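Pilot study result, target chain (501 residues):
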Amino acid sequence: MKLFSNAALAVLFSFSAIISAQPLADLSIPDLVVNPVEDTMCVPINANHYQEVVAYQFAIRYDSTQLVFAEVRFNNNGLGINSRNFGMPLVGQLRHLYSPFDTGPITLPDSTLLFEVCFTPKVPNGYSIIAFGGDIETSFLDDDVQEIDSLFLTDGSLTFGEIPTIPLRPGDTNADGTVNHTDLLNIGLAYGASGPARDTVVDGFTEVEAVPWPQTLPDDTNFANIDADGNGTIEAADVAVLNTFYGQEAPGFWNPGGGTSSGRSADPSLYLGGVDTINAGELMTLPIFLGEPDNAAAGGNGLAFTLEFNPDEVDLSSLAINLENSFLGEDLLSIAKVTELTTGRFEVALARKDRADAPAPAGAALVGNLTFRALNNSANENYQLNLVLTPDAYLSADQVTIALGGTGNEIEVNGTVSSREPTWARGINIFPNPTQEGVVILNNLPAGVTDISLVTMHGQELARYPGSQRSLDLSELPAGMYVVRIAAGAEQANRLVVRGR
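Predicted structure:
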Protein backbone atom coordinates (compact mmCIF):
# COMPACT_ATOMS: atom_id res chain seq x y z
CA MET A 1 0.00 0.00 0.00
CA LYS A 2 1.28 3.51 -0.90
CA LEU A 3 0.25 6.66 0.95
CA PHE A 4 1.57 8.84 -1.86
CA SER A 5 2.24 8.24 -5.54
CA ASN A 6 5.02 9.45 -7.81
CA ALA A 7 2.49 11.48 -9.81
CA ALA A 8 1.26 13.27 -6.67
CA LEU A 9 4.77 14.11 -5.62
CA ALA A 10 5.52 15.43 -9.09
CA VAL A 11 2.82 18.06 -8.49
CA LEU A 12 4.21 18.90 -5.06
CA PHE A 13 7.77 19.20 -6.32
CA SER A 14 7.88 21.21 -9.53
CA PHE A 15 11.33 22.60 -8.88
CA SER A 16 14.56 21.26 -10.34
CA ALA A 17 17.82 20.87 -8.46
CA ILE A 18 21.33 19.99 -9.45
CA ILE A 19 22.20 16.74 -7.73
CA SER A 20 25.66 16.96 -6.22
CA ALA A 21 25.69 13.47 -4.68
CA GLN A 22 24.23 10.10 -5.44
CA PRO A 23 20.83 9.76 -3.72
CA LEU A 24 21.21 7.38 -0.80
CA ALA A 25 19.22 6.30 2.24
CA ASP A 26 20.75 4.09 4.94
CA LEU A 27 18.59 3.78 8.06
CA SER A 28 19.04 1.51 11.05
CA ILE A 29 17.46 0.51 14.34
CA PRO A 30 19.81 -0.76 17.07
CA ASP A 31 19.41 -3.82 19.29
CA LEU A 32 18.70 -2.47 22.79
CA VAL A 33 18.76 -4.27 26.12
CA VAL A 34 16.97 -2.42 28.96
CA ASN A 35 17.47 -3.92 32.41
CA PRO A 36 16.00 -3.09 34.83
CA VAL A 37 12.84 -2.40 32.87
CA GLU A 38 11.74 1.23 32.60
CA ASP A 39 8.21 2.71 32.44
CA THR A 40 8.97 4.14 28.99
CA MET A 41 11.60 2.66 26.67
CA CYS A 42 12.60 4.55 23.53
CA VAL A 43 14.20 3.07 20.42
CA PRO A 44 16.09 5.45 18.08
CA ILE A 45 15.63 5.43 14.30
CA ASN A 46 19.00 6.50 12.92
CA ALA A 47 19.98 7.80 9.49
CA ASN A 48 23.52 6.52 9.01
CA HIS A 49 23.60 8.09 5.53
CA TYR A 50 20.92 10.33 4.03
CA GLN A 51 21.73 12.07 0.75
CA GLU A 52 19.56 13.97 -1.73
CA VAL A 53 16.23 12.63 -0.42
CA VAL A 54 13.02 14.52 -1.23
CA ALA A 55 10.36 12.36 0.39
CA TYR A 56 9.86 8.98 1.96
CA GLN A 57 7.42 6.68 3.72
CA PHE A 58 7.83 3.58 5.84
CA ALA A 59 6.31 1.77 8.78
CA ILE A 60 7.86 0.49 12.00
CA ARG A 61 6.55 -2.83 13.28
CA TYR A 62 6.86 -4.36 16.74
CA ASP A 63 5.45 -7.23 18.80
CA SER A 64 2.19 -5.98 20.32
CA THR A 65 2.11 -8.93 22.75
CA GLN A 66 5.26 -7.52 24.36
CA LEU A 67 4.98 -3.74 23.93
CA VAL A 68 2.42 -0.93 23.90
CA PHE A 69 3.13 2.11 21.75
CA ALA A 70 3.51 5.22 23.93
CA GLU A 71 4.79 8.18 21.86
CA VAL A 72 7.22 9.47 19.26
CA ARG A 73 9.96 11.82 20.40
CA PHE A 74 11.23 14.23 17.77
CA ASN A 75 14.74 15.43 17.19
CA ASN A 76 15.86 18.79 15.86
CA ASN A 77 17.63 17.33 12.83
CA GLY A 78 16.64 19.78 10.09
CA LEU A 79 13.76 17.75 8.69
CA GLY A 80 11.11 19.35 10.87
CA ILE A 81 9.45 16.00 11.65
CA ASN A 82 6.40 16.36 13.89
CA SER A 83 3.23 14.49 14.85
CA ARG A 84 1.59 15.26 11.49
CA ASN A 85 4.16 12.96 9.86
CA PHE A 86 2.77 9.89 11.63
CA GLY A 87 -0.41 7.98 11.01
CA MET A 88 -2.64 6.67 13.75
CA PRO A 89 -0.89 3.72 15.44
CA LEU A 90 -2.18 0.35 14.33
CA VAL A 91 -1.78 -2.84 16.32
CA GLY A 92 1.89 -3.73 16.03
CA GLN A 93 2.98 -0.96 13.70
CA LEU A 94 3.46 2.79 13.29
CA ARG A 95 3.26 4.57 9.91
CA HIS A 96 5.59 7.44 9.03
CA LEU A 97 5.36 9.80 6.02
CA TYR A 98 7.71 12.70 5.19
CA SER A 99 6.75 14.79 2.15
CA PRO A 100 7.38 18.55 2.50
CA PHE A 101 6.61 20.76 -0.49
CA ASP A 102 8.70 23.82 0.25
CA THR A 103 12.20 22.35 0.34
CA GLY A 104 14.55 20.71 -2.11
CA PRO A 105 16.52 17.48 -1.73
CA ILE A 106 17.92 17.13 1.79
CA THR A 107 21.25 15.68 2.90
CA LEU A 108 21.77 15.04 6.60
CA PRO A 109 25.03 14.54 8.49
CA ASP A 110 25.95 10.89 8.94
CA SER A 111 24.55 9.21 12.08
CA THR A 112 21.63 11.61 12.45
CA LEU A 113 18.81 10.67 14.83
CA LEU A 114 15.53 10.95 12.91
CA PHE A 115 13.20 10.28 15.85
CA GLU A 116 12.58 7.85 18.69
CA VAL A 117 9.67 5.43 19.05
CA CYS A 118 8.75 4.87 22.69
CA PHE A 119 6.93 1.96 24.28
CA THR A 120 5.69 0.77 27.65
CA PRO A 121 6.17 -2.90 28.56
CA LYS A 122 3.18 -5.22 28.39
CA VAL A 123 4.97 -8.02 30.23
CA PRO A 124 7.59 -7.90 33.01
CA ASN A 125 10.34 -9.45 30.89
CA GLY A 126 10.26 -9.63 27.13
CA TYR A 127 11.70 -9.20 23.67
CA SER A 128 10.40 -7.57 20.50
CA ILE A 129 11.83 -7.08 17.07
CA ILE A 130 11.71 -3.41 16.03
CA ALA A 131 11.80 -3.47 12.27
CA PHE A 132 11.03 -1.61 9.08
CA GLY A 133 7.96 -2.80 7.21
CA GLY A 134 4.20 -2.99 7.62
CA ASP A 135 1.08 -2.45 5.57
CA ILE A 136 2.59 0.43 3.57
CA GLU A 137 5.35 0.14 1.02
CA THR A 138 8.77 1.44 2.04
CA SER A 139 9.69 4.13 -0.46
CA PHE A 140 12.36 6.86 -0.72
CA LEU A 141 12.27 9.35 -3.61
CA ASP A 142 14.89 11.60 -5.14
CA ASP A 143 14.47 15.03 -6.79
CA ASP A 144 13.26 13.41 -10.03
CA VAL A 145 10.50 11.67 -8.07
CA GLN A 146 12.19 8.35 -8.73
CA GLU A 147 12.68 5.49 -6.31
CA ILE A 148 16.14 5.60 -4.72
CA ASP A 149 18.02 2.43 -5.58
CA SER A 150 20.64 2.77 -2.86
CA LEU A 151 18.33 1.99 0.05
CA PHE A 152 19.63 0.12 3.10
CA LEU A 153 17.47 -0.69 6.11
CA THR A 154 18.74 -2.51 9.20
CA ASP A 155 16.24 -3.89 11.70
CA GLY A 156 16.74 -3.91 15.46
CA SER A 157 15.18 -5.20 18.65
CA LEU A 158 14.27 -4.33 22.22
CA THR A 159 14.99 -6.74 25.07
CA PHE A 160 13.80 -5.69 28.51
CA GLY A 161 13.61 -6.91 32.08
CA GLU A 162 15.27 -9.88 33.73
CA ILE A 163 16.05 -12.05 30.73
CA PRO A 164 17.68 -15.41 31.46
CA THR A 165 21.02 -15.80 29.72
CA ILE A 166 22.55 -18.81 28.02
CA PRO A 167 26.21 -19.89 28.24
CA LEU A 168 28.24 -20.16 25.07
CA ARG A 169 31.79 -20.18 23.77
CA PRO A 170 32.67 -17.83 20.88
CA GLY A 171 32.98 -19.73 17.60
CA ASP A 172 31.29 -22.91 18.82
CA THR A 173 28.14 -22.16 16.83
CA ASN A 174 26.69 -25.66 17.11
CA ALA A 175 27.45 -25.95 20.86
CA ASP A 176 29.28 -29.26 20.52
CA GLY A 177 32.27 -28.17 22.63
CA THR A 178 34.79 -27.57 19.86
CA VAL A 179 35.42 -25.07 17.07
CA ASN A 180 35.90 -26.65 13.67
CA HIS A 181 34.76 -26.40 10.06
CA THR A 182 31.22 -27.64 10.76
CA ASP A 183 30.58 -24.46 12.79
CA LEU A 184 30.65 -22.49 9.53
CA LEU A 185 27.43 -24.13 8.33
CA ASN A 186 25.29 -22.52 11.04
CA ILE A 187 26.63 -19.09 10.07
CA GLY A 188 25.31 -19.74 6.57
CA LEU A 189 21.94 -20.94 7.86
CA ALA A 190 21.45 -17.79 9.95
CA TYR A 191 23.34 -15.29 7.78
CA GLY A 192 22.07 -11.71 8.00
CA ALA A 193 19.98 -12.21 11.17
CA SER A 194 20.26 -9.71 14.01
CA GLY A 195 19.54 -9.79 17.71
CA PRO A 196 20.84 -8.60 21.10
CA ALA A 197 24.56 -7.89 21.12
CA ARG A 198 26.75 -9.24 23.93
CA ASP A 199 28.27 -6.88 26.47
CA THR A 200 31.02 -9.34 27.40
CA VAL A 201 34.44 -8.70 25.90
CA VAL A 202 35.80 -11.98 24.52
CA ASP A 203 39.16 -12.90 26.01
CA GLY A 204 40.03 -16.35 24.76
CA PHE A 205 37.89 -19.42 24.26
CA THR A 206 36.06 -18.95 27.53
CA GLU A 207 32.42 -19.37 28.46
CA VAL A 208 30.35 -16.17 28.36
CA GLU A 209 26.71 -15.41 29.09
CA ALA A 210 24.48 -14.07 26.33
CA VAL A 211 20.90 -12.91 26.01
CA PRO A 212 19.10 -15.51 23.88
CA TRP A 213 17.77 -14.38 20.52
CA PRO A 214 14.17 -15.10 19.56
CA GLN A 215 15.38 -17.07 16.53
CA THR A 216 16.53 -20.67 16.64
CA LEU A 217 17.47 -23.26 14.07
CA PRO A 218 15.28 -26.35 13.66
CA ASP A 219 17.63 -28.24 16.03
CA ASP A 220 16.96 -25.52 18.68
CA THR A 221 20.41 -23.92 18.38
CA ASN A 222 19.88 -20.34 19.48
CA PHE A 223 21.11 -17.67 17.09
CA ALA A 224 23.09 -16.11 19.97
CA ASN A 225 25.44 -19.11 19.69
CA ILE A 226 25.94 -18.39 16.00
CA ASP A 227 26.79 -14.71 16.52
CA ALA A 228 30.44 -15.62 17.09
CA ASP A 229 31.78 -12.10 17.60
CA GLY A 230 28.77 -10.98 19.67
CA ASN A 231 28.10 -7.76 17.74
CA GLY A 232 24.40 -8.53 17.22
CA THR A 233 24.61 -9.45 13.52
CA ILE A 234 25.43 -12.80 11.93
CA GLU A 235 27.79 -11.98 9.10
CA ALA A 236 31.09 -12.83 7.43
CA ALA A 237 33.04 -11.30 10.34
CA ASP A 238 31.91 -14.23 12.50
CA VAL A 239 34.07 -16.55 10.39
CA ALA A 240 37.14 -14.66 11.68
CA VAL A 241 36.27 -15.85 15.20
CA LEU A 242 36.18 -19.43 13.96
CA ASN A 243 39.65 -18.95 12.50
CA THR A 244 40.89 -17.45 15.77
CA PHE A 245 39.64 -20.29 17.98
CA TYR A 246 39.85 -23.12 15.44
CA GLY A 247 40.60 -26.44 17.16
CA GLN A 248 39.81 -25.13 20.65
CA GLU A 249 37.85 -27.48 22.90
CA ALA A 250 35.78 -26.93 26.02
CA PRO A 251 37.19 -28.66 29.12
CA GLY A 252 36.02 -32.25 29.38
CA PHE A 253 35.10 -32.48 25.72
CA TRP A 254 36.21 -35.68 24.00
CA ASN A 255 37.03 -35.52 20.32
CA PRO A 256 36.86 -39.01 18.76
CA GLY A 257 38.52 -37.85 15.53
CA GLY A 258 37.29 -38.42 12.02
CA GLY A 259 36.15 -41.59 10.32
CA THR A 260 37.18 -42.89 6.96
CA SER A 261 35.44 -43.76 3.73
CA SER A 262 37.35 -46.31 1.67
CA GLY A 263 34.86 -46.70 -1.18
CA ARG A 264 31.81 -45.21 -2.91
CA SER A 265 28.48 -45.44 -1.12
CA ALA A 266 25.05 -45.67 -2.71
CA ASP A 267 24.58 -41.96 -1.96
CA PRO A 268 26.15 -39.26 -4.17
CA SER A 269 29.83 -39.19 -3.23
CA LEU A 270 32.69 -36.75 -2.95
CA TYR A 271 35.68 -37.77 -5.06
CA LEU A 272 38.83 -36.43 -6.68
CA GLY A 273 39.04 -36.06 -10.43
CA GLY A 274 41.98 -35.54 -12.71
CA VAL A 275 45.17 -37.51 -13.20
CA ASP A 276 45.98 -40.71 -11.34
CA THR A 277 49.79 -40.26 -11.47
CA ILE A 278 51.72 -37.28 -10.09
CA ASN A 279 55.35 -36.41 -9.35
CA ALA A 280 56.70 -35.93 -5.85
CA GLY A 281 57.61 -32.33 -5.12
CA GLU A 282 55.35 -30.81 -7.79
CA LEU A 283 52.39 -28.64 -6.81
CA MET A 284 49.22 -30.31 -8.12
CA THR A 285 45.66 -29.03 -8.48
CA LEU A 286 42.86 -31.59 -8.71
CA PRO A 287 39.11 -30.97 -8.76
CA ILE A 288 36.78 -32.29 -6.06
CA PHE A 289 33.43 -33.42 -7.44
CA LEU A 290 30.13 -34.35 -5.84
CA GLY A 291 27.86 -36.86 -7.56
CA GLU A 292 27.86 -38.29 -11.06
CA PRO A 293 25.56 -37.98 -14.08
CA ASP A 294 23.53 -41.01 -12.99
CA ASN A 295 23.72 -40.21 -9.26
CA ALA A 296 23.53 -36.43 -8.80
CA ALA A 297 23.30 -34.75 -5.41
CA ALA A 298 20.47 -32.53 -4.22
CA GLY A 299 21.00 -28.80 -3.93
CA GLY A 300 22.04 -27.64 -0.47
CA ASN A 301 23.06 -24.63 1.59
CA GLY A 302 26.32 -25.70 3.19
CA LEU A 303 28.87 -28.51 2.93
CA ALA A 304 31.61 -29.61 5.33
CA PHE A 305 34.10 -32.37 4.53
CA THR A 306 37.54 -33.65 5.46
CA LEU A 307 40.50 -34.75 3.36
CA GLU A 308 42.44 -37.44 5.26
CA PHE A 309 45.98 -38.44 4.35
CA ASN A 310 49.30 -39.64 5.72
CA PRO A 311 50.96 -36.43 7.00
CA ASP A 312 54.39 -37.86 6.08
CA GLU A 313 53.33 -37.94 2.41
CA VAL A 314 51.79 -34.46 1.93
CA ASP A 315 53.34 -31.03 2.43
CA LEU A 316 50.92 -29.50 4.96
CA SER A 317 51.80 -25.94 3.96
CA SER A 318 50.79 -26.63 0.36
CA LEU A 319 47.18 -27.59 1.09
CA ALA A 320 44.61 -25.12 -0.23
CA ILE A 321 41.24 -25.11 -1.94
CA ASN A 322 39.86 -22.74 -4.58
CA LEU A 323 36.06 -22.50 -4.59
CA GLU A 324 35.70 -20.55 -7.84
CA ASN A 325 32.88 -22.03 -9.95
CA SER A 326 31.69 -24.16 -7.04
CA PHE A 327 28.21 -25.60 -7.54
CA LEU A 328 27.09 -23.98 -4.26
CA GLY A 329 27.58 -20.50 -5.72
CA GLU A 330 30.09 -17.72 -6.16
CA ASP A 331 29.75 -15.54 -3.05
CA LEU A 332 30.37 -18.12 -0.32
CA LEU A 333 31.47 -18.29 3.28
CA SER A 334 34.39 -20.67 3.59
CA ILE A 335 37.02 -22.06 5.92
CA ALA A 336 39.86 -24.51 5.25
CA LYS A 337 42.22 -25.68 7.98
CA VAL A 338 44.79 -28.37 8.68
CA THR A 339 43.59 -29.45 12.10
CA GLU A 340 45.99 -29.94 14.99
CA LEU A 341 43.55 -32.16 16.93
CA THR A 342 44.14 -35.16 14.68
CA THR A 343 47.07 -35.40 12.30
CA GLY A 344 46.52 -35.82 8.59
CA ARG A 345 43.23 -33.95 8.29
CA PHE A 346 42.44 -30.98 6.03
CA GLU A 347 39.01 -29.70 7.04
CA VAL A 348 36.93 -27.63 4.62
CA ALA A 349 33.49 -26.01 4.80
CA LEU A 350 31.58 -23.76 2.43
CA ALA A 351 28.14 -22.19 2.81
CA ARG A 352 25.82 -19.83 0.99
CA LYS A 353 24.83 -16.44 2.41
CA ASP A 354 21.26 -16.22 1.12
CA ARG A 355 19.75 -18.82 3.49
CA ALA A 356 18.56 -20.74 0.42
CA ASP A 357 19.60 -23.95 -1.33
CA ALA A 358 21.74 -24.02 -4.43
CA PRO A 359 20.03 -25.44 -7.52
CA ALA A 360 20.34 -29.20 -7.74
CA PRO A 361 23.26 -30.07 -10.05
CA ALA A 362 22.42 -32.03 -13.18
CA GLY A 363 25.36 -34.39 -12.80
CA ALA A 364 28.89 -34.25 -11.44
CA ALA A 365 29.15 -30.98 -9.55
CA LEU A 366 32.42 -29.13 -8.94
CA VAL A 367 32.93 -28.45 -5.22
CA GLY A 368 36.31 -26.79 -5.61
CA ASN A 369 39.90 -27.35 -6.76
CA LEU A 370 42.32 -28.90 -4.26
CA THR A 371 45.99 -27.90 -4.35
CA PHE A 372 48.68 -30.00 -2.64
CA ARG A 373 52.26 -31.23 -2.98
CA ALA A 374 53.13 -34.90 -2.47
CA LEU A 375 56.43 -35.56 -0.69
CA ASN A 376 59.07 -38.15 -1.43
CA ASN A 377 59.03 -41.24 0.74
CA SER A 378 62.13 -42.30 2.68
CA ALA A 379 63.53 -44.24 -0.27
CA ASN A 380 62.59 -41.60 -2.90
CA GLU A 381 60.73 -44.33 -4.76
CA ASN A 382 57.26 -44.61 -6.25
CA TYR A 383 54.39 -45.14 -3.82
CA GLN A 384 50.58 -45.05 -3.56
CA LEU A 385 49.20 -41.87 -1.97
CA ASN A 386 45.78 -42.46 -0.41
CA LEU A 387 43.57 -39.36 -0.15
CA VAL A 388 40.28 -40.03 1.61
CA LEU A 389 37.37 -37.60 1.24
CA THR A 390 34.86 -37.85 4.09
CA PRO A 391 31.64 -35.75 4.14
CA ASP A 392 31.02 -34.37 7.64
CA ALA A 393 27.75 -32.52 6.94
CA TYR A 394 25.69 -31.44 3.94
CA LEU A 395 22.72 -29.34 5.04
CA SER A 396 19.74 -27.82 3.30
CA ALA A 397 18.57 -24.30 4.17
CA ASP A 398 16.04 -25.76 6.64
CA GLN A 399 18.85 -27.77 8.32
CA VAL A 400 17.88 -31.12 6.88
CA THR A 401 20.88 -33.44 6.51
CA ILE A 402 21.47 -34.62 2.94
CA ALA A 403 23.12 -38.05 2.74
CA LEU A 404 26.50 -38.22 0.99
CA GLY A 405 29.22 -40.80 0.57
CA GLY A 406 32.99 -40.46 0.66
CA THR A 407 35.79 -42.10 -1.30
CA GLY A 408 39.35 -43.25 -0.99
CA ASN A 409 41.40 -41.96 -3.90
CA GLU A 410 44.67 -43.73 -4.75
CA ILE A 411 47.25 -41.75 -6.68
CA GLU A 412 50.57 -43.07 -7.93
CA VAL A 413 53.41 -40.78 -6.83
CA ASN A 414 56.62 -40.90 -8.87
CA GLY A 415 59.60 -40.49 -6.57
CA THR A 416 62.70 -38.55 -7.55
CA VAL A 417 64.62 -41.74 -8.48
CA SER A 418 61.81 -42.95 -10.77
CA SER A 419 61.55 -42.24 -14.45
CA ARG A 420 58.84 -39.60 -14.00
CA GLU A 421 57.67 -38.39 -17.40
CA PRO A 422 59.73 -38.94 -20.53
CA THR A 423 62.68 -36.64 -21.10
CA TRP A 424 61.23 -35.52 -24.45
CA ALA A 425 58.16 -34.12 -22.67
CA ARG A 426 59.86 -31.76 -20.25
CA GLY A 427 59.87 -28.79 -22.64
CA ILE A 428 56.22 -29.10 -23.68
CA ASN A 429 53.97 -26.24 -22.64
CA ILE A 430 50.50 -24.93 -23.52
CA PHE A 431 49.61 -21.28 -24.01
CA PRO A 432 47.61 -19.27 -23.29
CA ASN A 433 46.77 -21.19 -20.13
CA PRO A 434 44.19 -20.42 -18.80
CA THR A 435 42.52 -19.58 -22.08
CA GLN A 436 39.52 -17.25 -22.34
CA GLU A 437 38.98 -17.57 -26.11
CA GLY A 438 39.28 -21.34 -26.16
CA VAL A 439 42.14 -21.91 -28.62
CA VAL A 440 45.49 -23.09 -27.18
CA ILE A 441 48.84 -23.73 -28.82
CA LEU A 442 51.01 -26.78 -28.05
CA ASN A 443 54.63 -25.69 -27.95
CA ASN A 444 57.87 -27.70 -28.17
CA LEU A 445 56.30 -31.00 -29.20
CA PRO A 446 58.95 -33.40 -30.49
CA ALA A 447 58.68 -35.13 -33.84
CA GLY A 448 57.98 -38.53 -32.30
CA VAL A 449 54.52 -37.69 -30.90
CA THR A 450 52.01 -40.23 -32.24
CA ASP A 451 48.69 -38.88 -30.93
CA ILE A 452 47.18 -36.21 -28.70
CA SER A 453 43.92 -36.51 -26.76
CA LEU A 454 41.77 -34.12 -24.75
CA VAL A 455 40.34 -35.69 -21.59
CA THR A 456 38.01 -34.48 -18.85
CA MET A 457 39.08 -34.51 -15.22
CA HIS A 458 36.87 -37.61 -14.87
CA GLY A 459 39.00 -39.43 -17.45
CA GLN A 460 36.48 -39.22 -20.32
CA GLU A 461 38.12 -38.71 -23.70
CA LEU A 462 36.57 -35.78 -25.57
CA ALA A 463 38.70 -35.69 -28.69
CA ARG A 464 41.72 -37.36 -30.29
CA TYR A 465 44.16 -35.68 -32.69
CA PRO A 466 47.13 -36.78 -34.80
CA GLY A 467 50.62 -36.25 -33.44
CA SER A 468 51.14 -33.38 -35.86
CA GLN A 469 48.37 -31.29 -34.24
CA ARG A 470 49.71 -28.05 -32.75
CA SER A 471 46.51 -26.24 -31.64
CA LEU A 472 43.37 -27.32 -29.80
CA ASP A 473 40.01 -25.56 -29.91
CA LEU A 474 38.28 -25.60 -26.50
CA SER A 475 35.77 -22.87 -27.34
CA GLU A 476 32.76 -25.23 -27.35
CA LEU A 477 33.64 -26.69 -23.93
CA PRO A 478 32.31 -25.36 -20.63
CA ALA A 479 34.66 -23.55 -18.25
CA GLY A 480 36.80 -25.91 -16.21
CA MET A 481 39.99 -27.96 -16.12
CA TYR A 482 40.98 -30.51 -18.76
CA VAL A 483 43.93 -32.85 -19.37
CA VAL A 484 45.90 -32.90 -22.62
CA ARG A 485 47.51 -36.34 -23.05
CA ILE A 486 50.46 -36.50 -25.39
CA ALA A 487 51.67 -39.95 -26.45
CA ALA A 488 54.83 -41.05 -28.21
CA GLY A 489 54.46 -44.77 -28.69
CA ALA A 490 54.21 -46.39 -25.25
CA GLU A 491 55.31 -43.25 -23.43
CA GLN A 492 52.87 -40.56 -22.29
CA ALA A 493 52.89 -37.06 -20.78
CA ASN A 494 50.01 -35.04 -19.32
CA ARG A 495 49.40 -31.31 -19.20
CA LEU A 496 46.55 -29.51 -17.43
CA VAL A 497 44.72 -26.76 -19.33
CA VAL A 498 42.11 -24.40 -17.92
CA ARG A 499 39.19 -23.16 -20.01
CA GLY A 500 38.15 -19.81 -18.57
CA ARG A 501 34.71 -18.24 -18.72
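One observation from the pilot: The radius of gyration is 30 Å. A full batch analysis is planned for the follow-on phase.
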